[in-house]
Amino acid sequence: MSENIRVGGNVNIKVGGTTRWYAKEGVEINSNGFIDYFAPKYTYGDPLDSPVKESVKEIELITTLDFGSKNDTKGGTNNLGMLFGKTYEFKVKAYHKDVPKNKTDIKWMLKYHSLSLNKWIEIPLAAKGDHIKVEMNEEDMCGRFVFVRAYIKDPMKEAELPVWKHNRFRWFDRMEIHEQIKNRVKDPWKIDQGGSSLCGMAALYYAMIKRDPKAYEKLAKELFRTGQYTIGNYILKPHEKALSMYETKPTDANYVSMKMKAIDWIVLATTRSKESLNSQFVYNGFENSQVDMVKAVNWPNMLTRMCKEVAGFTNAESHDLGLLQIANKKGLSGKLNDAIGDMDILNLKIIDRKYKEGKTILMMIDANMIYNIPEYRNLSITENSHWVVYEGELSFIDVGNSKFVGFSIYTWGFNPINQRNELGYEADISQSLIYRKERINLQSFKANYYGYIEIS
Prior knowledge:
By secondary structure, the protein is α+β, with helices and mostly antiparallel strands. Helix content is 24%, strand content 27%. It has helices spanning 174-186, 199-211, 213-226, 253-256, 262-274, 290-295, 300-309, 323-330, 332-340, 343-356, 442-448; strands at residues 2-7, 11-14, 26-31, 35-38, 56-61, 66-68, 79-81, 87-95, 107-114, 119-128, 131-135, 144-151, 159-165, 229-231, 234-236, 316-319, 360-366, 385-390, 395-399, 402-406, 409-410, 440-441, 449-455. The strands form 8 sheets. Strands 16-23-17-18-21 form a 5-stranded antiparallel beta sheet, with helices on both faces. Strands 10-9-12-13 form a 4-stranded antiparallel beta sheet, with no helix packed on it. Helix 1 runs antiparallel to helix 3 and helix 2 (199-211) packs across helix 3 (213-226).
């Protein structure tokens, strides 16, 4: 409301200090005489607000914070922050003037900037009083500063405490992770399964980046930051019995033995853990035994489905990848069929034609093909089976009585064009198929080829 003052004579004000006028809407002074002010006239800044008798000045965090990466590319791990799913207690430490008579007048709010939505989010809390407990169970807050506010009247002008909340994979350096993602978006072949059995996952994401690099970039960043990523109805995250993956450190012996870059381990291992066969056969991201390697097997039906659910392809169809067909190929019956026919060579020519038509081909082979070893062994699908991505350049050559075939593939983090990896090392001389684009014996191809997944 306004204050109106009307006088018929002069108004003389003599002050030696500061005179303040507070009004909600305005002050109006009317005089038929003169208004004289006997004090220097200075104006600095905006008008002052009226004093608030009850307001929160300062709050504090009672719960101890946990360490995590400093995210500075230097390997520091002494950065303090909150953890997803942990409960934290905050309390009012000081008031601007009077302590409120009724502590339930104190309200609380959380505020943070959402990277996924690219906007600020304010979350009023139901709890009231001079202290509260908050369970930090919002994934989107991970990797962000959370601003905790306590106030009586004005949340913008009363107490605020910024607290860092760690990325879900808190021990890995965000700046290094983002640099690795950038490198893979530019050169998909830099995805490397290292010493793991995650060849199918590597082939899947290599194909995904070539189709839609932005989709991979978003998935990789959000999975690292929040610990999960949603694609339609598919929620990508570790199996419920493998949540210990979130606490993995780059210095852990289990992780070091995988010989994988951080982002490749996070994306490939997490995806495979999600697809664990059942709760008794869970892949936890590490392979310390033959059983662990079996848990990481990339089954043809699973990989075919994931080409659509995860990688975003519209169509995915497998060819000659039934378990019985694969088993036959590995044994003596496969050797006999290859000796009397050239069906595998015909399939290779079909693969090359589909590749030239723009299809992406995930080829299932025995790793012996890469080493030019024409061996038939009665082994299960889980032993030595390997997924590669076909990259064209098919050629045949006859040398005397010997027949050879050559073509380009993506595998093991090597560039299909020059056969060098991210560090500049070329494939080993024993890896004939990918070493300097050398050809392999036709029999080595036939003995080690199983089938393929066609996606578009």
